[in-house]
Amino acid sequence: MYNSGVEILNNKLRCITSVITVSMIILLSISVAVAKNNYYSNDDRIIINPINSPPLPIRQPAEFEPMEGVLINYGGDNNFGISYDIIAEMAEDVDVVTIVDSTSQQTYVESLFLNHGVNLDHCSFLISPSNTWWTRDYGPWFIINGDDHQGIIDHVYNRPRPNDDQIPNAYGNWQGIPVYDMNLVHTGGNYMTDGQGTAVSTTLVWNENPGYTHDQIDQIVEDNLGITTYHVVPDALGAYIEHIDCWAKYLAPDVIMIIEVSQSHAHYDDIEDAVDYFENQFSCYGTPYEVVRVYTHLDEPYINSLILNDKVLVPITGSSWDDDAIASYEEAMPGYEVLGFSGSWYSTDALHCRTMGITDRGMLYIEHTPLYGEQSSPSGYDIEAKIIPYSGENIIAGSTQVYWKLEGGEWDSIEMQNIGDDNYIATIPPQQSGETVNYYIHAEDESSRTENHPYTGESDPHSFIVSGSSNDPPFKPTKPDGATSGKPGTKYMYTTDTVDPQTDEVFYIWDWGNDNFSTWLGPYESGETCITSYIWDEKGTYAVRVKAKDIHGLESEWSDPLEVTMPKTFPIWSNIENNFPLIYSFLTKLLGI
User: Fold this and answer.
1) Which of 8, 49, 255, 376 has a CA positioned 20 to 30 A from the CA of residue 284?
2) Where are the domains positioned within the chain?
3) Nearest CA to 460 among 294, 253, 303?
4) How far is CA 168 from the centre of its chain?
5) What stretches of 445-590 adopt beta strand conformation (E)?
6) Rounded distance between C-alpha atoms, residue 333 and residue 373, angstroms
């Protein structure tokens, strides 16, 4: 039965009404989501929408890398949380960015700075509502994205302070830096990174993100921060705040400082367990971490310090242990100026908590895995590095140098040569066994930046010891032994062996005579037979040979070749193969082919 015209019209109207209703719900949902994530400037004229995915690959610089500024807060508490002496010290070298609520408050703070000897030429102001002075916990996390440009990662701040939580967006809007959302509840005091894809937090990050598995959290920090090794460890202090910066600190990619307490301390065992853990972990250099200590007799917050370029600002309390704490930093960080500052410090809230370094967006970045331990090479010691001027300016010709010397000797230098893209290499000449070689890398670019690796260069160079015995490559492997003829598509076994003069383990690579090579097979003991196999797909004659290398990378000559023939066949032979397989099998065995 057909509907009347009125019924048809009513149905259409109901459909249109439903579509409009659903559309309004969707638009309202989008508006709510955008309002939640947008940052509104003080005059509500500018809206910043955080971006969700930074270009890959991502690198997150460490605290000990070059900084262009430091972020502090006045507006939230009408108090800086740090002394004018600290602010004046920081303003000697970098831009001190102060968060204030309004332009009138900025004018007032400028007068305070002027009255206390702070260099106003090195001061700027972020006008944005805020709640507290703990810029470390809610401030922007800086990254270098896949385009070699600075970005900001905005985590979900783990405190109910909505104005503080908007500061990363406010800073990004002010500086024109893209902001990327990271949907992970976190806090800056519970996070530290080595700048090379490794980071550390306490289990607080697990507890505050119950909707994620541990693997999912690892994936989030990898996708947003480039972290591929995430150490999540128990809090060694059992404190309410559970922040890593209350008891541990990266001083370099391979050095971690951890507090030391007396054996009567309630958490002595927990702290020593943390030391044992890190001493048994490998740094990004492939070496065990060097764990250094700073003694905290009555829970003094010495560990809660700020590394700002070549200075270390340490909170002190007037304790008799202050001088020892300064000395611990000086011993662990040669070439740095270590300065102590008093303040309203607590064991869980001190100088590091109330400041946030601002990564130099145009830094001259040197990435290098140092030579260490015993090294042996009759041809010299290759020093390789990646050198990237994030400023976009050119590296100054001739400035890329490896400075090196023998222990007790004078510094010499070798220019590093560009071998493609941002990769450079120089070779320290061979040295006599037993010598200790010290070295560091230096570079300059046309933005007037200079950089060393390690950071303080001559004051704290890398070093290695020339091995006590010379090293020679393995002898030429024996001529391969195996079938000299066969059928394409069939697997054939081959063997060889060699002896290493130092009885080092060896690897073998096979050349199958058709532009195909095996991977390096092994390791094998010196003199042990290497057995492998290969299948040729085409008929022809092939010269099979093999080369060896020892565990130090020294390679032998190629062996004498073994000629292997996959014989050609005639049509009648192919006919027998295809139609009379049993006869074909009998004949091939009889003829040995």
Assistant:
1) 376
2) 5-37, 47-359, 365-466, 481-565
3) 253
4) 22
5) 450-453, 462-466, 481-482, 491-496, 506-511, 521-524, 530-535, 540-550, 562-566
6) 20
Query: Domain 47-359 is classified in which CATH homologous superfamily?
Result: L-arginine/glycine Amidinotransferase; Chain A (3.75.10.10)
Do the domains spanning 365-466 and 481-565 agree at the CATH topology level? yes
Name the fold adopted by 481-565: Immunoglobulin-like (2.60.40)
Residues in the chain: 593
pLDDT tens digits, 487-541: 898 999 999 999 998 888 999 999 999 999 999 999 999 999 999 999 999 999 9
CATH superfamily of 365-466: Immunoglobulins (2.60.40.10)
Q: Which residues contact 121 (CB under 8 A, 6 or more apart)?
A: none
How far apart (Å, rounded) are the C-alpha atoms in residues 516 and 509? Answer: 11
| Distant-in-sequence contacts of 586-589, Cβ < 8 A, 24+ apart | 588/487
C-alpha closest to that of 364 among 443, 308, 421, 427: 443
Q: Where are the alpha helices (DSSP H) in 44-115?
A: 84-91, 103-115
Catalytic site residue from 123, 246, 353, 530: 353
Lowest mean pLDDT: which of 9-13, 52-56, 529-533?
9-13
CA-closest candidate to residue 248, choices 262, 228, 227, 231: 231
353 annotated active-site: yes
